[in-house]
Specification:
The complex is a heterodimer of chains A (493) and B (363). Chain A has 493 residues and is an alpha/beta fold. The longest helix of chain A has 34 residues. Chain A is elongated, with a radius of gyration of 33 Å. Chain B is α/β, with parallel strands linked by helices and 363 residues long. Chain B has two domains: 239 residues, 3-Layer(aba) Sandwich (Rossmann fold); 110 residues. In chain B, the strands form four sheets. In chain B, strands 1-20-19-18-10-2-9-3-5-7-6 form an eleven-stranded mixed β-sheet, sandwiched between helices. In chain B, α1 crosses α2, α5 crosses α10 and α8 packs parallel to α9. The N and C termini of chain B lie close together (9 Å). Classes of the chains: A alpha/beta (493), B alpha/beta (363). The interface between A and B is medium-sized, with 19 and 20 residues.
Chain lengths: 493, 363
């Protein structure tokens, strides 16, 4: 989970959707994915190392497609063995055959993966798979190496002789079954039972010896689990980057802007694709302090906020981003305020919930540079005070170095020095033509309107008035004419 | 028709059991209820096939464990040297065979993951395999891949669906007479279940459309199959409603269903009046995947029959024989042959008592 984010917020910005497509193949990789979190802003070097590793492996994968298939094939074979390792670590515990079978297969898989990881030239020591060929040799005493596990006769001479006796008795029993007497058969059965008990005892002795030998390799096993998990998660990030056509985000300590170019929100893009429509890539350059988006209803302001937040979150978590370019400083916090109803359900009003969240934001801002996205803050109170609060908030956050991107319909909140963006929306649309088209295809008015909406952002003067398209949009969507006329009269007078 | 009931010597019995099942690659032992002698019968057939590379598994014992069944109901079998077994890891320590773990399956049961194990010696072992039909099919394949040429499956109580093994298989149906009921009543029940299992086959062109193909992404659940293939309609759910009824025309030959046919399904089907078919449901074939998918009581069967609906199977099952366990219902030297004679009048399949050696040939 992203710190401070609720599950619904992660879903809303598309983070959960993206994480759902990042698919490590081992239990160890999946656990790393589950624990994914932004790197602290103070650990930029570590974050850049992670991004470098994604980049190097991405280049390698693009040039070596069959290597990817081979690596995935090996990774898919790894099973959860940490329970077995836990038992191995218990002093006095003797592993059973299933435990030994699992450890053998893990070791064989690690031996198979080791040269593959070495081949791709990752310098990251976290991903260097330790050599566990000695473990394979212990658990596979007689060549060739197989994935099966058997307490072989060669482990202990006594075991071989007991088993030979047992087989001899079984042959005699078979002979007795076809013609011998009951007394002789009972005696053979008893003999066989004794041999089976001795076999179990001898096997236990072998298992005790094997457990002791493997216990010496416990740290190697643990290191192997870590390395496999790290590599698996890295490869999952790389394959995700391939799928999303993602690029390396550029994180610089002293960057003064958050620059996003041709960014895609993959979740929204997938939803649009299902309806046969295309996502219009988003480009925006945020400056330190307050940045404001105004624009038409249905113009995609919320999608911009979600996309900007998503890209920052992905970058800080060490993922490549689905954009042509992302430049930003390391961010100490991510904050997203939207109109989800979680807090309302908890008993607060929409406004009350917003105020509580903004209070949390102010606390975060005092502790470093971060990104805050505010979707129509204070829309739930009276417009006069709402506008004042919005304006005050924008001025207040401008005192800090973080990036604040706020969308609003209020007309008089952007202060001098703030960056002001507008969704082009229907600014350049011919309303008469649109109206006549929508008259013909009334049942598709919503789709038609979206088709004519220009979702691109343009930077405008700080004091540019926000578009006033609400009544016209309502008309295009088929709202009652008399009501619309009344609304226009109110606006005029 | 009265059949001859004869008593076979142990050697003759083994030869007979081998002959009855030698053409089948998989043998599932199923019974309509608990304690019908499935494991006893399986053991007898397994012994009869001694020397062959066999695979053995059992449907998970979780059902038996949950309903408080006795230890005797658990699948404890004596397997020959070389047998390939599929059993839960938790069962491995219960037995005295010398074993090699060959592979894991990724199939998990309450007793641990199902493992493929080779018996390097003969001996007894407790078996608990998968409890889902799809998993069982995977286990068959794995057992075969590790060298088993004939796979024996000890079924679970009431799990008739497991009588439908993959291609080339047959079931052995086990019957045990209940001392609390009359022989006639037990025989009638067995006859009913067998009639269901051995449901007649639907015409091949219709069967082909009802069975799920590997390339189907989201298999349809219900079909209204027309003589003209172009007019065949498929539905995503098996809920019969007005749409389904409206899709039935004079040229409709069958309604195919993938999944269980329940009493509720029959009621809904008969409650819908077809609009475009003058003779209603009469003459239509209701095609189920196989006989194990029928969960109808006698009244619903009769209602379907009265409506003119003929129930057929897309994949008919083969029942190789019926293994009869006379239980305590039959006492005295003539009791077992008498029970066999009563049963033989109701069931045309070969009957065999694997304990006493009584045998009646099939018709």
């Amino acid at each position: 989970m992203l710190p401070g984010f609720r599950r619904e917020q992660e879903e809303r910005i598309g983070f959960s959707w993206v994480m759902g497509r990042c698919e490590p193949l081992t239990p160890f990789g999946r656990e790393r994915k589950k624990a994914v979190a932004p790197f602290p802003a103070t650990e930029l070097a570590a974050l850049n190392r992670e991004l470098d590793a994604v980049g190097r492996l991405l280049d390698w994968c693009r040039a070596n497609r069959s290597w990817v298939d081979d690596a995935r094939l090996v990774l898919e074979r790894f099973k959860e063995i940490r329970g077995t390792l836990g038992r191995l670590g218990e002093e006095g515990r003797i592993l059973d055959e299933v435990d030994l079978f699992e450890l053998k297969n893990f070791a064989i898989n690690a031996c198979d993966l080791r040269p593959l990881v070495a081949a791709c030239g990752l310098s990251d020591v976290r991903m260097a798979i330790p050599d566990v060929s000695d473990v394979v040799a212990v658990l596979n005493p007689d060549p060739p190496v197989t994935r099966s596990f058997f307490l072989a006769d060669s482990y202990a001479p006594e075991l071989g002789s007991i088993r030979a006796d047992k087989q001899r008795v079984e042959r005699e029993l078979l002979h007795e079954a076809t013609g011998g007497g009951a007394g002789a058969r009972d005696a053979l059965m008893e003999r066989r039972r004794e041999l089976a008990i001795r076999e179990r005892e001898a096997e236990e002795q072998v298992r005790r010896t094997l457990t002791a030998r493997l216990r010496a390799s416990l740290h190697t096993f643990d290191a192997c689990v870590d390395a496999v998990g790290a590599f698996d998660f890295l490869l999952a990030k790389v394959l995700l980057a391939c799928e999303l056509n993602a690029v390396r985000p550029e994180l610089r300590e002293n960057a003064k802007e958050y620059i996003l170019k041709d960014a895609v929100n993959p979740m929204v893009a997938a939803e649009l694709a299902e309806r046969g429509r295309r996502f219009v890539p988003i480009s925006v350059e945020l400056g330190a302090g307050s940045n404001v988006i105004t624009g038409a209803n249905m113009g995609g302001k919320s999608v911009v906020l979600a996309t900007v937040t998503l890209h920052a979150a992905l970058a800080m978590c060490g993922f490549f981003v689905p954009a042509a370019r992302l430049e930003m400083p390391p961010l100490g916090y991510l904050f997203y305020l939207s109109d989800d109803l979680q807090s309302v359900q908890q008993g607060l009003s929409t406004f009350g919930a917003e105020v509580a969240e903004v209070g949390r934001l102010l606390g975060l801002m005092r502790h470093g540079v971060g990104l805050a996205a505010l979707d129509e803050f204070a829309r739930g109170t009276n417009p006069e005070e709402g506008e004042a609060l919005m304006r005050a908030l924008l001025e207040f956050v401008s005192r800090y170095n973080g990036f604040c991107l706020a969308s609003t319909h209020y007309g008089n909140v952007v202060g001098k020095g703030m960056r002001h963006f507008q969704v082009i929306g229907l600014k350049r649309a011919d309303f008469d033509e649109l109206r006549s088209r929508l008259d013909i295809q009334k049942e598709r008015s919503f789709d038609q309107l979206q088709e004519h909406m220009d979702y691109r952002l343009e930077r405008v003067e700080w004091d540019s008035p926000p578009p006033r398209d609400a009544v016209r949009v309502a008309e295009l969507l088929g709202l009652d004419g008399e009501l619309l006329e009344l609304a226009r009269a109110k606006l005029r007078g | 028709m009265v059949r001859c009931v004869e008593r076979l010597s142990p050697g003759e019995l083994r030869a007979k059991l081998r002959a009855l099942t030698s053409t089948y690659a998989t043998l599932s032992f199923v019974g309509a209820c608990q304690g019908t002698g499935k494991t006893t019968a399986l053991q007898a057939f397994l012994d009869a096939h001694a020397g062959e590379p066999v695979g053995v598994t059992s449907v998970g014992v979780d059902g038996a464990a949950l309903n408080g069944a006795s230890e005797r109901s658990r699948a404890v079998l004596t397997v020959p040297r070389g047998a390939i077994l599929a059993t839960a890891s938790g069962c491995l320590s219960h037995g005295d065979i010398t074993r090699e773990i060959l592979a894991d399956t990724g199939i998990h049961t309450p007793l641990g993951e199902v493992l493929i194990v080779k018996a390097h010696s003969g001996g007894w072992i407790e078996l608990a395999g998968p409890s889902v039909v799809a998993d069982l099919t995977r286990v068959y394949r794995l057992l075969e891949a590790h060298g088993a040429r004939r796979v024996f499956v000890d079924g679970a109580q009431g799990r008739l669906s497991l009588a439908a093994p993959s291609g080339g298989g047959a079931a052995v149906f086990t019957v045990r007479l209940d001392p609390a009921r009359s022989v006639e009543s037990c025989v009638a029940d067995a006859g009913r279940v067998l009639a269901q299992l051995t449901l007649a086959a639907a015409p091949p062109d219709i069967s082909g459309r009802c069975l799920v193909r590997d390339d189907e992404d989201r298999p349809a659940k219900l079909f209204v199959i027309d003589r003209d293939a172009k007019r065949t309609r498929s539905f995503a759910t098996s809920d019969v409603d007005r749409d389904t009824a409206d899709a039935v025309f004079d040229s409709t030959v069958a309604i195919g269903i993938r999944g269980a046919v329940t009493n509720e399904f029959a009621d809904r089907l008969l409650g819908q009046k077809p609009l475009a078919r003058e003779c209603g449901w009469s003459g239509l074939v209701l095609v189920v995947e196989d006989g194990t998918r029928l969960f109808l009581d006698d009244r619903r069967r009769e209602r379907l029959r009265a409506a003119g609906i003929d129930v057929r199977a897309a994949r008919p099952l083969t029942v190789a024989c019926v293994a009869v366990h006379p239980g305590t219902a039959a006492t005295g030297p003539d009791a077992v042959p008498a029970v066999m004679k009563t049963l033989s009048a109701a069931v045309p399949l070969p009957l065999v008592d694997v304990i006493g050696g009584w045998y009646a040939a099939g018709i």
